Amino acid sequence: MKNIKLIEVKSEIGAGTRGASLGIEAIKIAAFDFGSDFFKRYQSQDIQTENQMLYEPSRSSYARRIKGVVSVSERVAESVKGIIEEGNFPIVLSGDHSTSAGTIAGIKMAHPEARIAVVWIDAHADLHSPYTTPSGNMHGMPLSAALGEDNMTMKVNNVDDTIRDYWERYKKIGGMSPKIRYDNLVYVCLRDFEQQEDFLLKQHRVRVITTDEIVNYGIDKAAREVLYAVEPCDYIYISFDVDCMDSTISKGTGTPVPNGITEKQAASLILRLMQDEKVCCFEVTEVNPTLDKENLMAENAFEILQKVTNQLYNDWAEE
After folding, report:
1. What is the dihedral of CA 305, 281, 104, 203, to 10 degrees?
2. Which domains can be identified in the chain, with CATH numbers?
3. Of 148, 152, 150, residue with least CA distance to 172
4. 4 — phi, psi (to 5°)?
5. For residue range 167-195, what is the model confidence (pLDDT) as tens digits?
């Protein structure tokens, strides 16, 4: 029987707002408050961060602290690869979304010949590159890295050689690029993106399951649509950014957006998706308790995390 292993990535250098590095500890506090032994039950690997870079001036406005993001992402990739090759199931708890490029790389490194699907449950597309970014924040770039996408057609920034070289290294973590294809990418609750990202979404006809679809057609149909879209793939990675939830709920995250789903809808959808045996990795990201009240976001994230692990063990017990 498989075992769940946790990967803790307390990195926040890819975000534009401070505090995401505290998200994992906030989730642990939520577990403690619920009387759960969750974090004693599962083995955990703590990834070395580069958060000291926050106290240094950023050298580029088009890829802030990219050197550190690449280093942390490479460590994440090796950790994910190792856990999968052991026959176990990695659950990644990350501060900001930039290191998910490493998560995807690790899956691909463990399964180099396989077709990997990504279910991106997020208010944002995260499809920028240093050539297109309006903010320079690396948590808006992990999917472009995984896709090997520069989007030079929509270029607005002139990038120097150093940033270009680190960007190439970011794209090629694990020695492979691209790692995923646009037709194996599905967004859930995407609703906040720039024209450069919209260009790619339309050009590649990327499937987007909207909040309205979830509300109007129900969780089960939305989940079926997601799984149908990724059906040709060998493995599925689910990335859950807490800002997929409505801004009335998701105050404890750096970039809240209106018109999201509720915490109950998020939990129900993820649990339905987790029933697919192709799911090989799950990630929770962007919890920022410094922006929250009474640790509500971390509590919501922990409840979903606990339900996911229970679902996995129930499914494995039936095999």
Report:
1. -80
2. 4-318 (3.40.800.10)
3. 148
4. -85, 135
5. 999 999 999 999 999 999 999 999 999 99
Report the C-alpha gap between 127 and 125 in whole angstroms. 5
User: Could you please report the per-residue DSSP string of 55-70?
Assistant: GS--S-SSSTTHHHHH
Question: What does the CA dihedral 197, 199, 202, 207 come to, rounded to 10 degrees?
Answer: -10
Nearest Cα residue to 120 out of 273, 295, 237:
237
Q: Rounded to whole angstroms, what are the CA distances from 317 to 102, 139, 197, 309, 313?
A: 30, 36, 42, 12, 6
Beta strands 207-209 and 235-241 are: unpaired
Predicted local distance difference test score (pLDDT) of residue 256: 83
Structure-block tokens of residue 117: 């699907």
pTM of the prediction? 0.97
pLDDT in tens, 61-102: 899 999 999 999 999 999 999 999 999 999 999 999 999 999
Give the type of residue at 24: I
Return the axis-axis angle of helices 296-318 and 23-33, rounded to nearest 10°.
70
Note the pLDDT tens digit of each residue in 247-292. Answer: 887 688 988 899 999 999 999 999 999 999 999 999 999 999 999 9
